[in-house]
Amino acid sequence: MSTAINLYEAKTQLSSLVERAAKGEEIVIAKAGRPLARLVGLQSRKTPRKPGLLKGQIRIDSDFDAPLPESVAKAFRGESA
């Protein structure tokens, strides 16, 4: 269940709101009655990541880090082609 709280009050009570969110409560922060953000606790991984899970399934070309063609580089810089 979520609790709505106004922005000013959230600023003055941030520490306690973070503690509540860490315990599983969802806090909705609003300004002038309009919801702006949601404060929720972080979820921990249930199982640790296993390195190498996608080994052999991903291929990176030998020119992966080669310079871009000049026309593409100009586009990234916002210049005309």
Structure description:
The chain has 81 residues and is α+β, with helices and mostly antiparallel strands. The protein has a domain at 2-39: YefM-like fold, CATH 3.40.1620. It has helices at residues 7-12, 14-22, 70-77, and strands at residues 2-6, 26-31, 34-39. It has a three-stranded mixed beta sheet. Strand 2 (26-31) and strand 3 (34-39) form a beta hairpin. The chain is flat and about 55 Å long.
Structural topology:
Elements: E1 2-6, H1 7-12, H2 14-22, E2 26-31, E3 34-39, H3 70-77
Parallel strand pairs: 1-2
Antiparallel strand pairs: 2-3
Characterize this entry briefly:
By secondary structure, the chain is an alpha+beta fold. The protein has a domain at about 1-40: YefM-like fold. It is built from three helices and three strands.
Looking at this protein, list some descriptive labels.
81 residues, alpha+beta, YefM-like fold, three-stranded mixed β-sheet, flat
Radius of gyration: 23 Å
Strand fraction equals 15-25%
Helix content: 25-40%
Helix/strand order, N-terminal first: EHHEEH
Q: Which residues sit in consecutive blocks of at least 5 with pLDDT less than 50?
A: none
CATH third-level topology of the domain at 2-39 = YefM-like fold
CATH architecture of the domain at 2-39: 3-Layer(aba) Sandwich
Task: State the separation between the terminal residues, measured CA to CA.
Answer: 53 Å
Structural class: alpha+beta
How many H/I helices? 3
Q: For the largest beta sheet, what order do the strands appear in spatially?
A: 1-2-3
Shape, principal axes of CA atoms: flat
Instruction: Say how many strands there are.
Output: 3
How can the largest sheet be summarized?
3 strands, mixed
Mean pLDDT reading: 91
> Mind telling me the CATH class of the domain at 2-39?
Alpha Beta
